[in-house]
TrEMBL record:
One of its GO terms (cellular component) is cytoplasm. SUPFAM superfamilies: Mss4-like. It comes from the Bacteria. It is an enzyme of class 1 (oxidoreductase). This is Peptide methionine sulfoxide reductase MsrB. The lineage of its organism: Bacteria, Candidatus Sungiibacteriota. GO terms for biological process: protein repair; response to oxidative stress. It catalyses: L-methionyl-[protein] + [thioredoxin]-disulfide + H2O = L-methionyl-(R)-S-oxide-[protein] + [thioredoxin]-dithiol. Belongs to the MsrB Met sulfoxide reductase family.
Length: 140
């Protein structure tokens, strides 16, 4: 039996093209990246929860966001570790750890072992993959 989450991961790319902007599609489905220092959430200090722009899965909170100086929003931990998947990425002549949405499989960015705090992690995430649900917004 296939769960709703499994079905969400299997959506045809034509469906994703109709749902996402061209920039979101390039990053989230083709594993691209946005230019550093240009993303909407790079400098954001607003309080809330960052969700997947494709499916609404809760990914990160403003409490774990920090300024890494890299040009992308950076977080020390996901909101819930089961909401993201980590995969080995050997593209671009190096080995990195890719971060993907645990619900829809969208590429989000990469995680590195040079972050602050107890986790020592830096989840370097493309702004175009995120929507911010501000803390003062009421849930539907």
């Amino acid at each position: 039996m296939t769960s709703d989450d499994d079905i969400h991961k299997l959506k045809d790319n034509a469906v994703w093209k109709g749902k996402l902007t061209p920039d979101q599609y390039r990053v989230m489905r083709e594993k691209g990246t946005e230019k550093p220092f240009t993303g909407e959430y790079y400098h954001s200090n607003e309080v809330g929860t960052y969700v997947c722009a494709a499916c609404g899965n809760e990914l990160f909170t403003s409490e774990t966001k920090f300024d890494s100086g890299t040009g992308w929003p950076s977080f020390t931990d996901p909101a819930n570790r089961s909401h993201v998947e980590l995969r080995e990425d050997q593209s671009h002549g190096m080995v990195r750890t890719e971060v993907v949405c645990g619900k829809c499989g969208a590429h989000l960015g990469h995680v590195f072992d040079d972050g602050p705090g107890a986790s020592g992690k830096r989840y370097c995430i493309n702004s175009v993959c995120l929507d911010l649900k501000k803390a003062d917004e009421k849930k539907p």
